[in-house]
## 1
Amino acid sequence: MSEVALAARGLNKKFGSLVVASDINLVLPEGARYALIGPNGAGKTTLINLLTGMLPPDSGEIVLAEQDITAQAPQERVRRGLARTFQINSLFPGLSALEAVTLVVEERRRLSGRFWQNLASHKESIEEAYDILSRLRLGDSCYQPTRELPYGRQRLLEIALALATRPKVLLLDEPAAGVPQDESGEVFEAVAGLSGDLTLLFIEHDMHVVFRFASHIIVLVGGAIFAEGSPADIAAHPGVREVYLGTRQHG
Amino acid sequence: MSVAKPATTDPQIWLNARSRWHRLEICFWLATLLPFLLFPNYLSLASQIAITALFALSLDIILGYGGVVSLGHAAFFGVGAYAAGLYSVHVTGEPLSGLAVGGVLAGVAGYAASFIVSRFRHLTLIMITLGIGLLAHEVANKAHWLTGGSDGLQGVKTLPLFGLFKFDLYGNVAYAYSLGVLFLAFLGVRRIVNSPFGLSLRGIRENLIRMPAVGADSRAHIRTAYTIAATLAGIAGAILAQTTQTVALESISFQRSADVLVMLVLGGAGRLYGGLIGAALFMVARDQFSGIAPQYWYFWIGLLLVTVVMFLPNGILGGLSQLYARWRVK
């Protein structure tokens, strides 16, 4: 269990004079469920962008399952088992949910270059895609174009696309963002239902959700790790209450 | 209005149904045979339409399905035309091997260009493809010793098809040949857009940013699509060279790149039949209007283009399929 799934060492990133990541060290053990919290503009999404290769770091290194992936393109990292979801839906509006997830499965199975075969004959991929959608309770709406799906279902499709890459490490950027609170449970139940050996790092603002699902919490402030520890540690941390929990309660 | 499908639909059956032949498609292909009976005097025009339709179909792969814009697609049409023409002048006038030579050389040119094209989007991409098209045109113009420049390539001879069917003055064989190649190419493209690769191509069109985040190498896909599109464009060019027995500089011009884009947008990009319908409409309109006022016929095309893109953003076919869907719901 103590194997490290994903680690970052000394990550730095600046936009001009604005420091968005400052000497970030991070270790995610296999099967861990970490929450990443912090005020707006703390650099949470930037950290996910750095880890997944959407932004190159100025310095530092990223290690996935003991392999240095710092120089790898995003799609290479995905193929090695590092997937993410987006805070703002980044879906395929004109494709049905079934097509979108099948696309991802085909990419993972390296069958997407086969321009001479009929997609409908790729039974295994289609069934796998349908299975993922069913597990997220999207089975009955998987034939509709994505743009016609209700927002909550689109959020679930965000997760379905990431799951179809069969990740070992999954980074969720506010999976329930914009979902009404009474429905956000559904999104997080889906997250909780993910298999136990999947390593998870999620950004979330709702502290009830964070304390319920996270085994470990990292607090990011101004691009640097301000505190980290078990939910109990963080809840008792005087500084965290002040910079994050405190301001939120007043705001 | 979308109709909710029953929850029991099997996903494989649903996907399969999307690639099945529609009755209207069969009607469409039967209708392409009508010119032999109804318009025997217009078979040369019909042949030109089939060639242009194949050219538009090739653009649809990259533009309609992959979302990769091109203003220089005539470069590959021209490479195919000159390759087939020169092959006829210097090697043999046998048409099928000439067709292969035109397709392969255009495909190689497309593959080379794809390494640049796949790296850019939007305005940059438009300018790059425009530049490639202009470069190709000037090279063909300057290489007078090889291509005949603005005089056109002379001395192209085409031997009988399969050694049996002589290319006649009325265009019977020319149209049969163009139509046959168009149909085979269409079958190929139809398979491609219904393949896993076609799905990924649509993914690139729908959301390029998401593709790397799901493990897809979009650039590799675009390179493949571009090579296939250039090959088909080259085949179209080769048929034009063989059936008209000359290669005009016009076949590699910017005008041709612009025209094919207009046809595809008029007909409806991203629909297999958009380029075919657009090409037929454009060519017939040109034939009719240029009879009335040869200088000004682009006025009418301009008017049609503005009207269509304003009121039918998915082209004429897009509008028709919307009507059809509404009618079926009723």
Note: The CA atoms of residues 11 and 113 of chain B lie 38 Å apart.
## 2
Amino acid sequence: MCGIVGLFCKSDAIADHLGDHLSRMLVQMNDRGPDSAGVAVYRDPAPAGSCKLTLQHEDPGYDFETLAAGLARAFGGEADVTRRATHAVLVVAADAADAQAYVRAHHPEVRVMSVGSVIEIYKETGLPSAFAERFSLGDIRGTHALGHTRMATESRVTTLGSHPFSTGLDVCLVHNGSLSNHNDLRRKLRREGIEFHTENDTEVAAGYLTWRLREGDSLHDALMHCLDDLDGFYTFAIGTADGFAVFRDPIACKPAVMAETDDWVAMSSEFRAIAVLPGAENARIWEPAPATPYIWEGARV
Amino acid sequence: MAVDIAAAEIVDLARTPLRDLNQRLHDLAGTADGPRSWRIVNPSGMHNIACGLDADVDVVIEGHAGYYCAGMNKLARVRVTGNAGQGLAENMMSGRVTVDGNASQAAGATAHGGLIHIRGDASARCGISLKGAAIVVEGSVGHMSAFMAQTGVIIVLGDAGEALGDSMYETHIYVRGTAAGLGADVVEKELRDFHRGEVGGLLADAGITGVDVSDLRRYGSARQLYNFKIDNTY
């Protein structure tokens, strides 16, 4: 089944309580995805010349400070650590690709969840409502966010098999559906230099978007190319540095509902997750058409 | 369908398990005992509310319903004051289901009888495989509505999405706005007096006034897919 939620703030009043809104939306999707949960939030841009990494280790007591000190020695400046349950956000005075390569080379025990300047990804196995509480989502301020609750069909229930999947700097993907040609596509994308860390089908879709964007596609064109190359069914929500997008396959059997007010744009698998937002009763509500990209940009990051 | 609110049996789904509610509603079948009028509060988008009813009762769901609300309904009049999720009144046999807001995908799928009245929009595949019920949508319907619809009536006062009526049989489809595209083997047909009467009667039944039935267009099957043709094979 799986549940998806997305929220794009158009007013400070919503942005100030982004995490609280996101958390309540996610909990409404508990039944759709009790196996694991995850969110991507866009907030607190790293200073120019710095990047932001979200790292995870299964031991909440893991010594991220020593890892950060190593990054600071390697790249200069100071590496700032902010912990959230099993995750830590590090702001490093380095190029994003270099910092990520350093962590993968020197700390293979640590998982890199996201890389960019504004994105933070948190995800773990377990019930979404427990996740929201454990990660104190309620206190997060930011411009936009995506969330996912997973009912696993395609691969194991693990932290890395949870959504959102990072698809490059500040870009991430959540997915409801399943892809049937992911093994073949993964092999082709590996030849293009795209790295994969799981057997998960959604990670392949994320890698596919990374590849298309790297080849110069706009987000709109990258999504339209999915129609040619992805075999399966999907409702995607994609987070970008300054916005989010929603895209459904040509049959569109996986649910999606969208709503917009003067204060926010929201999407979800079911209206019940949108009904918890302030002003939902007067929102413009519609279901996105198949094979049609819906893109919101210009978040005031 | 005036409901005596004061006398209604109130069930709060924030306190009462949904299975208990549905069981109480099922227990009304074949007996005159028990409340004839029900108010369901705090539905909060739950799935399968008021499914499988088989009694001449009124049920008002105050708020949003999730998937399969009033599925398999027989005799009962069910109203949702908010929005309804996928599969509204799926396989309904008789009675009436009204939604004040929007209905999600596959509203009225395979429904055999009764009236489904959606005051807002219905989304994709509204009336898929319809088997005899009447569906009245005051707003618009999404893509592939009336897909393989067999008999019954679908009236859309707004617009219809792509592939309307794809591979349909003998359902009567009426659209007041525009259809983004017609499905395989669907053609526009003449709106005759019989059809004006059919639309007028159903709109009156749904309590909808101010519609000039001559503004609607009728769509039906060209009946070119009914028999095997060697040219259609791949």
Note: The first helix of chain A runs from residue 12 to 15.
## 3
Amino acid sequence: MLILECPCCGVKGEETEFHGGGEAHIKRFGPGSSEEEFHDYLFAKENPRGVHFERWRHVNGCGKWFHVARCTRTLEVFGSYSAQTTEPPQEIRDAITARRPGWRWREFS
Amino acid sequence: MSTRLAFGGRRIDRTKPVEFRFNGKRLKGFAGDTLASALLANDQVMVGRSFKYHRPRGIVASGAEEPNALFNMGQGGRFEPNQRATTTELFDGLSVTSQNHWPSLEFDVGAINNHLARFFPAGFYYKTFMFPRFAWKHVYEPIVRQSAGLGRAPKDRDADRYEHFYAFFDVVVIGGGVAGLQAARAAGAAGAKVLVMEQTADWGGRAMVDGGTVDGQPVAEFVSESLAALEAMENVTLRTRMMGAGVYDHGYLLGYERLRDHSPDAPGPRHRLWRIRADRIVTATGAIERPLSFAGNDVPGVMLASAVRDYIVDYGVSPGDRVVVVTNNDDAYRTAIAVRQAGLAVPVILDARLGGGGALAEEATKLGIRVETGMGVARVHGARRVEGVSVCAQAGEGAVLERIACDVVAMSGGWSPVVHLWSHCGGKLVWDEAEAHFRPDGDKPPLGADGAGFVVPAGAANGALSLGAGLADADAAGRRAARDLGLKPARSAAPEVGDAPEAPIEPVWLMPQGASAGLRMKAWLDYQNDVKVSDVQLAAREGYESVEHTKRYTTLGMATDQGKLSNINGLAILSDALGRPIPQTGTTTFRPPYTPISMGAIAGEARGETFQPLRRTPMHDWHEAQGAHWEPVGQWRRPYCYPRGEESHAAAVAREIMATRESLGLLDASTLGKLIVKGPDAGRFMDMLYTNMMSTLKPGRCRYGLMCSENGFLIDDGVVARIDDQTFLCHTTTGGAERIHAHMEEWLQTEWWDWQVYVANVTEQFAQIGVVGPKARKVLEKLTEDDLSADGFAFMAWKDVTFGEIGARVFRISFSGELSFEIAVPASHGRALWDKLLAAGQEFGVTPYGTEALHVMRAEKGFIMIGDETDGTVIPQDLGLDWAISKKKDDYLGKRAQARSHMSDPNRWKLVGLETVDGSVIPDGAYAVAEGTNANGQRNVQGRVTSSYFSPTLGRGIAMGLVLHGPDRMGEVIEFPGTDGKTYSAKIVDPVFYDKDGEKQNV
Amino acid sequence: MRRYSAFAVAREATRYHQGWARAWRSPEPKKKYDVIIVGAGGHGLATAFYLGRNFGITNVAILEKGWLGGGNTGRNTTIIRSNYLQDPSAAIYEKSRSLYETMSQDLNYNVMYSPRGVLMLAQTEAEVRGYKRTAHANALQGVDTEFVSPERVKQLVPIISLDGPRYPVLGGLWQARAGTGRHDAVAWGYARACSDMGMDIIQQCEVTGIRQDGGKVVGVDTTKGAIDCDKLGVVVAGHSGVLAEMAGFRLPIESVALQALVSEPIKPCMDIVVMANTVHGYMSQSDKGEMVIGGGADGYNNYTQRGSFHHIEETVRALVETFPMISRLKMLRQWGGIVDMTGDRSPILSKTPVENVFFNCGWGTGGFKATPGSGWGFAELVAKGYSPLCEAFGLDRFREGRFVDESVAAGVAH
């Protein structure tokens, strides 16, 4: 039973207030993209046993989407941040580094 | 024999006799008794039968760890199997029967298994019952099933109710023994908001029985003083009869409060499930005594030493006149002393340790009790109750030195901290060599959301078994919990306790240590599931080496007590058999709940009508009053049809359709999703959402649109109305409203967040009524002055119209093929307009129609229905909807996906109409067969039915389906085998069956 | 191998069962094998077994990081059914179900396959249509199912409440020859049979690297040293992503927790398996007498083998509504397993970008029932490079948009 904090409304809420939306920071590929790009965009998922970045929606709250950095092995939450960004902000990365030195996720570390 | 003593019994009130029934016999106990103590007081030593061998079983323990004393309890809607006698408080009228025997507890046919036990070792069923093949299902398994199971199945609906409760605390202390109270005091004094829960009805835990002095006063006084102090703190909540059932991630804790189990007739819910969030959880859950493994240790009358003294001290009950104590540690001497102080006999204390005990042993000796060191039990005599023990040297193989008559054997194999709650969420354990038990590894606690440990073990649950050590540990735990919260606890004020020096425990996993195979087959580990030392050794011999293998192969620890008594002993036997140290073997996983909790409590209040929230349209009550046949659609209920009197559903549907086609029908369309998309970039956004070009739609006009997922599949459809330059109103399917709203928000917020668009779901703000049929305009004209003429209000337009005092937005759209107006009004006016329409429509024979008539009419017109023609694998191109896919747009959701090879494959099945040759109705979901079979031997198919109805309008069956190259095969007849044994031949036709040119809707 | 029989048990009884041999050997790895299977769960062991049985390939090692059968094989709710909608699914699950029928005899290990019947309740009109469609499809696929009336539902499972106020039962899809099996025994039975064929089951041996030469697999590195092989079959469920990364590609998989629970045991009251998808719960009664209950999966990536309690709550609430008598039973134990969800919720049995490396994964919530069929097909794929059973489950399908989507029958509301 996770507790997550919605960065939009500032509420720290029960997992039941939120809805998970899968991997974060995925770049959309539309018409004109290659078969490989489009396949990877939809299906090649990060599935780490450890640090993970994902999307959540405060569905039974303010309704806003946001990002969460979380450990899938311990369920530790490193922080949540705006959905309107293409990469994790530095302070989130620092928070992860403090707990998981040497972490890597896709091109981020 | 076991009986009530003339004096003593700290928990019972001898002035309040209580009558109860056991297997039909009327028995008497006192208020404050547990069912177990009352049974023992009535000399009911044998209380049940074991699971596999149906051996006689007696009460072993006095608490939650009891594996044997389980009963069918109560009657009718209050019947409940497997009630544990040791945790069941006695009340007047309580009625129980014993379980797992036939015809009676005393004479049980199933006990034949006991005589054949040798043929039924661990896992014998994996090696047998294989021939002949059908026999497992038809012969062996039914026998196994009948003889397994414990209590009877309840038959009736539960007469009680249950509730859920949310709570938030800084610190929750689980366990109201001295350790829990001390930890709570420390945390509470520091200012933390604290909850203390105790699973029994009493505070103080074991210390109340075991005694001792704290700060120079008797421990009982320390307990009352602590309670008084806690009660005086406003930030502390105390709860008895509440168990910490499970610890989950991020400090989520389940508290299971049994409000009425002890007085079932009192008002209110029976159980309350507390769903607690705690910053810190202190587990002051104590420890559980371990049995010793010797031959015959399962005979009724063999009990945990601590339980024997509990029954004497707490309930004034003597489990027997002559109590042999057998132990490997000092604690059991307390039992010998208590027995003697109650005036009963202790023929001998068998201490397996060569060196014997410490101060308590001296005290026992002073009382004149015979103590034999280095000795153990070779075997217990008696079948239905203990008659005596044979004594042997612990170091030997079981040669009998002496036989001693007794009726109780009080055994103690040491104490295991209750680490369940620590472990539920991943807390790790360490093996404490000196104390011979697993205890929490403080360095590897369960981690909270912040990565810090959130469970703090305290007292005996942390391996600090003595009173003094336990209190000091608990005090530190309480202060630590407070400190973790950023509070400043007072400096240590741990109470002073003069613990008597104890001699160390010596692990004894088998008694005697060299016991022969014959003895090991009689030495029980798991009493309920009938797992013996020999079974675990057999598992090890056969290669079931992991502790999980052994558990599953032997069923050790899988009974209703979940191995509270058996796990550690079994683990030690396994480790020994494998020649591995115990910590290397490890434990099985501790899973919630700590002891079983009722399904009723888990389900809570949500039952029957309140099972899920019910969404009602403004016309809901009218539908109900008309006797509508409901169809659940999501959390809505929609009228399927409105049968009149004895009318069948099919007849009602036909009547509703004919009335609509001929004159006037009314549809409550309020459940349709209504989403507003607004903003300077609304057009651009709409163009991405829909396959159609929506940005070119003119204000005042409507357009039918399709939405696809990014994966290309059709997910929803509906009519879009452009309200003004920056505003669109999107109609979705009933089931789609929330889903599509979320879909829009997701793309807006996570992909195109710089676009200036807002989306609002206004589904419930509006009632929507379909006024349908040739008389639709006529009836509306009775209610308004506004121009609704064909010229003044074109098909696929919308306009604001006033019906008397009700302002409405009217859409000239049709899903039935008839002249049709969909009228949206604020929800609060919905019923009023509905009533007006009914009244005004009377002269036209106005007929409300339900979802089925809606479905049939749209199928007659060849309109697709999301969920019928689509199933998540269908793309718009499959449905001949290419006209709704804009070729001018560079992009829309799903466009790239639809370019993939399989999606542009000309062999995809395409939508057609299907007309049975004989006019019958093709079964819904039937497949069209093709020649031959595929590589896996399955019949080849070339299409399937997506919708199929009897059309009252056409007087024949009509269907739509997806067929290979369908549109190119008009007129061809293909075959659909039904599951009814018939084959349906159907001609491929145009999917529009009725009014192909759309003249009726366009008048 | 010593044959298991009642006679053998009786003979051993006379000598306190001291004479039983190990069910499987516990050897040290050899330098090289023809085929290495990574993962000694049910699917991995079944693959090895059919490699030997059907293709005569017995120079096989099965490497297991922990203990054999220690993953989802021993954590599921033991349901075996094949009433799937899509042809490829029905083919592999029906193959599987038919292999279960004779598995006890084939393995000489009683896996207690009990064809007690599986009933899927239809509680909405959409479900009625979906299940009728499935029944039609099944008839052509050689899967014996039928759509039954509410009255028949009540006969099959008398403890059910047909006319709950919210979701009355409108019928059900009934597969009489579906049922349950003893999950652990499946792994143990295959392990014993593999060991008997001379295959090496190496437990406590973790694969740490996949060695390639020119785009072709040549062996694996393990915690017990390097082992060579000609072909590599990876069947590691929740760790597929890790192994794929070693091989240098990504999978369309996300791992989430799926939970289940059992009640305390009671005398028989329910002979069949009932699944209620509208309200999200399913239940059967084990031979021990426990009501075995499962529900939906958690919605976020998770490797803890623990789930969120609200899912347990939802499941129990659904089943108390469907079977009111269970309200007074008690939950004895709840647990979680990690299931791999693919992009279309169907499994992957596929060649990979690395030559002679094959992956079998992504079984989601349906793995146990598929065990023998998966092993049968995957063994063929590994041995011959092609298997009709696996054909539709290749990795390519995600590129081509050629999904095998089973969520279809559930339908969508209107």
Note: The two ends of chain C are 59 Å apart (CA to CA).
## 4
Amino acid sequence: MAKMLISFKLNGKRVSVEAPVQTNLLQLLREHLDITSPKFGCEQGNCGACTVWLDGEPVNSCMVLAATVDGRAVTTLEGLGSPERPHPLQIAITEHYGSQCGYCTPGMIMSAAALLEKRNGPLSREDVVNAIVGNVCRCTGYSKIIESVLAAADKMG
Amino acid sequence: MKDVQYFAPGTLREALKLLGQHGARIRVLAGGTDLVRDMNLELKLPDNILWIGKLGLEYVRLEKGLIRIGAATRMQTAGDSRLLQTKASALAQAAGKLAAPPVRSLATLGGNICNASPAADTVCAMLALGAELVLSSQAGKRIVPLEKFFTGPGKTVLKAGEMLTEIRLRPTGNKEGSAYAKVGRRQALTLAVLNAAARVRLDGKGNCAEVNIAIGAAAPKPLRAHKAEAALRGKPVTPETIAAAAEVAASEIKPIDDVHGTAWYRRQLTRVLVARVLARAAGLGEEE
């Protein structure tokens, strides 16, 4: 199987990894780089569980051919916050019960955090809904997630 | 599993050379939301992949009176474009409604066209806007009207060795507008059960001087409703003439029953959505 060397910035650090040409970014992260926050859901862009940032924008990593991230920057939840230094949205999600089974949570946070990073001015409930329409959650009914994002926006000022 | 070859050239010249060399055995990869999805789900592996993300084909600009859009322009970029929002609003609306944000930062206008789905959001809008496509190969360029590009579901006039490089549109001018509307089974992440778009120009008396109507998911390819256009052209634009034109459109489509909706429902939707986009394009309706 033809393999290729892919070098890119992962959560701020340079990495180089060899993988088969047909590998998608989700497989590259989970199976070749031990980055397991992006989750395998539908592999067709319908669930958002695999959402990461590519050059600062949220994308479904399952539909990104890994070869195309060569020379670019990928940020996953691991790069956004840690147990020691959580992102304000991670704190808000725990405080507002924004996560139940947790499977959608990393992707949900990446989509919502992208909104928090690029907003100018206060957020409406509708802004939050529009930012997370690509992330399916089967537990929470979304209300607690939306509350969490709005609370994080308040905290972040 | 077979060996897939990957190419990521930095210039259009190199890309066209590769296309010429590999002909039908190379697939163009833009955003990946169709091609990589098919590789994931159906293990449809192309022999060769040509990624066009480094060719500088993401731009939206006004040049010599025409809006020129690079084929690799992503939905997010198109939806946020001030030029498209004001001078080709149907397209900005369609790009902004496609799927969801993590898809919109990958999927491209060129990909939406070349995938040739009869339900494609932005194709319907570009058809109503009267778009023309620039197809490039080593032999040179040819220009094909979008209406003549599709030959059936998933099928186009693109030849081996050729790729879509640019989309050209006439900007809307004075007393002219365009609009797009879609009904899906839910708000986001869904194919259109039916979509419609219109471009309308009024004359000094408020009569319809020019009109284009496009409907998607209503036939084997996205279609222009020429009879409905003729029914409105030259007439005052009122709720009555709009309803009459929408009724003609409903008789012009060739819908089928499928998992997304029935033919009967698609005719009902055509009446509603065509009337809605005509009213919005003519400035009579509320923007969504």
Note: Chain B has three domains: 5-51, 60-169, 176-281.
